[in-house]
Design goal:
The complex is a heterodimer of chains A (169) and B (401). By secondary structure, chain A is α/β, with parallel strands linked by helices. Chain B is α+β, with helices and mostly antiparallel strands. Chain B has a single domain, classed as Cytochrome-c3 Hydrogenase, chain B (Orthogonal Bundle), CATH 1.10.645.
């Protein structure tokens, strides 16, 4: 078991690549990282800090394609979510399947559904989509039956304010 | 000579089509590849156009066997997003439902495993005792499967005080039967010879492939969401995390069998200690933000991520079912095993099971003969019989009941 705080060690090791560290609760930590450093950071977390990769999440917002890396520190009871944003419409990011075997299939899934290119993936074949699915169509992108674009920060703040005033709970 | 055996992808009986390309040399497996999503339902995308209350019903239909795990994980995520604490009584009810589900899911697996290696008595017995739990669910929720008990902020229906007696009675009936079944299985020399050392998963591989649940625990990785990220009432009751070290099919069976006993223990304590009070904390509106919910399903950690931008539908829902993490462990487990063991190794991780209906045996690229589920089962049963012959001194009494 690691007694050191993994988030602190991550910040010390990669001072320029980690930003906006947010401790939402005892068990949930969020941080933004520079997309170019994702492989090094993943290797550090997985090998040195003994984290378990839960999964990756692809998510299309106004800022671009967000790719979230959810790591679990099971002994500490903390889920660390690393947030990367890569520009649309041709999102590309380094593959971490070369350092974590468990990421192989989810990267292929995100590549199929969101059209993200994972650079250096050992086997970038189709995984979810059928072999005769047309090239360049990504079913999970918001352009496909998306209900509406992601609300802007200001619009979201409006909602927060309204809920606060109503006194939820 | 190298031969490729595709296992799958269509199966008329079982819900999920998947394709395993098993490459064999003689009788030994040398490589395996996996292809899935022949029936991708796009549930994550559908969820974007459903309200939070509707999504609970949607995710309940991801899996028919662990049909309460996904709703609990989703509600954990929404509650994490909103920052709401659910009432004490709702916590206990969630634990009771989840543990009863674990019992019936593990018994279902045990029955299938028995069927795959040709021990039909195990199959019949474990499915018979599983009925106890299914009937109990019918009394509590009205449904044998898909109970619709869970709701963001608490639970949808209460468990009435008059129903406690029935739960305790079913547990009292189940426990001695389980002890008998566990004893019978673990004392049987053929069963041990058939399962021990088969499909071994080392601790390093379990960590490398990020496996979860009973598969990881059988290989000595001590993780359990119920203890590591307490939810429902698991921090209020006494129970143990079951781990083994061998990582073979036998260890996976032992973990599940002992977890049934732990689940019985948890259900008893929850019924004993359940407090009176409200069962629901209303969530009138979901603010913008993000939340993560985890739950220990019978097959392992179930993960949900919810992003909200302040409307009444999630902007994005990400679901990671436990089998997604456990299936790739086949890569390290199949190599060097017998073709006759394919069925039981496939079954050992308890995949939301897949498709062995049609397999073509190819030799030098030409179809040689069709291997369907029956052929694979025959191979598997033949191997058990072979072992049985080598234990002539064994009493067969319990098998012939």
């Amino acid at each position: 078991m690691k007694s050191v705080d993994p988030v602190k060690s991550l910040q010390e090791r990669f001072p320029d690549a980690v930003a906006d560290v947010e401790l939402r609760s005892d068990s949930r930590v969020y941080a933004s990282i520079v997309p170019g450093k994702v492989r090094d950071i993943s290797r550090f977390l997985f090998t040195d800090m003994e984290a378990r990769l839960i999964i990756l999440t692809g998510l299309e917002t106004r800022a671009g394609m967000e790719i979230l890396y959810h790591f679990s520190f099971d002994q500490l009871g903390k889920i660390l979510t690393l947030r990367t944003v890569v520009p649309m419409p041709e999102p590309r990011i380094d593959s971490i399947a070369t350092v974590i075997d468990g990421a192989e299939y989810i990267e292929r899934e995100i590549a199929d559904l969101f059209g993200v290119e994972f650079i250096g993936h050992p086997n970038p074949a189709r995984f979810i989509l059928a072999d005769d699915w047309p090239e360049g169509e990504y079913p999970y992108r918001k352009e496909n039956k998306g209900r509406y674009p992601y609300r802007t920060e200001e619009e979201q703040e409006e909602v927060r304010k309204r809920i606060r005033n109503k006194g939820t709970k | 000579m190298r031969t490729t055996i595709p296992v799958g992808p269509y199966h008329p009986l079982i819900e999920e089509p998947e394709l395993f390309r098993v490459v064999v040399e003689g009788e030994r497996v040398v490589d395996i590849d996996w292809r899935t999503s022949y029936m991708h339902r796009g549930i994550e995308k559908i969820a974007e156009s459903k309200t939070y209350d509707q999504v609970v019903f949607l995710v309940e239909r991801i899996c028919g066997i662990c049909s309460t795990s996904h709703p609990i994980a989703f509600c954990n995520a929404v509650e994490d997003l909103v920052g709401v604490e659910i009432p004490e009584r709702a916590r206990y009810i969630r634990s009771i439902v989840a543990e009863l589900e674990r019992i019936h899911s593990h018994l279902l697996w045990l029955g299938l495993a028995g069927h795959y290696i040709g021990y039909h008595t195990v199959w019949m017995w474990s499915w018979k005792y599983r009925e106890l739990v299914c009937d109990l669910f019918e009394k509590i929720s009205g449904n044998r499967q898909s109970y619709a008990m869970i709701k963001p902020g608490g639970v949808r229906q209460d468990i009435k005080a008059s129903e406690y007696g029935g739960i305790v009675k079913a547990m009292d009936e189940l426990e001695p039967k389980m002890n008998m079944l566990i004893g019978a299985i673990l004392d049987d020399p053929v069963m041990l010879a058939r399962l021990k050392g088969v499909g071994k998963l080392s601790r390093e591989d379990a960590v490398k492939r990020c496996t979860v649940g009973p598969v990881a625990r059988s290989a000595g990785v001590d993780i359990d969401v119920r203890r590591d990220y307490p939810y429902a009432a698991y921090d209020a009751v006494e129970w143990n995390v079951i781990t083994q070290t061998d990582g073979d099919v036998l260890a996976m069976a032992v973990v599940r069998l002992l977890e049934i006993l732990e689940a019985v223990k948890i259900v008893r304590q929850c019924v004993d200690g359940i407090p009176e009070g409200p069962i629901l904390e209303e969530i009138p509106e979901v603010p913008p933000g993000e939340g993560i919910g985890v739950e220990e399903a019978p097959r392992g950690e179930c993960f949900h991520y919810v992003r909200s931008d302040g409307t009444n539908c999630p902007y994005r829902l990400k679901v990671r079912a436990p089998t997604y993490s456990n299936l790739p462990s086949f890569r390290s487990r199949f190599i060097g095993e017998r073709v006759a063991d394919i069925m039981i190794i496939l079954a050992s991780i308890d995949p939301c099971y897949c498709c062995t209906n049609r397999a073509v045996r190819m030799e030098d690229g030409k179809p040689l003969r069709m291997l369907d589920e029956k052929n694979l089962l025959d191979l598997s049963w033949e191997r058990t019989k072979e072992l049985e012959r080598s234990f002539p001194q064994r009493s067969r009494s319990w098998l012939e009941i």
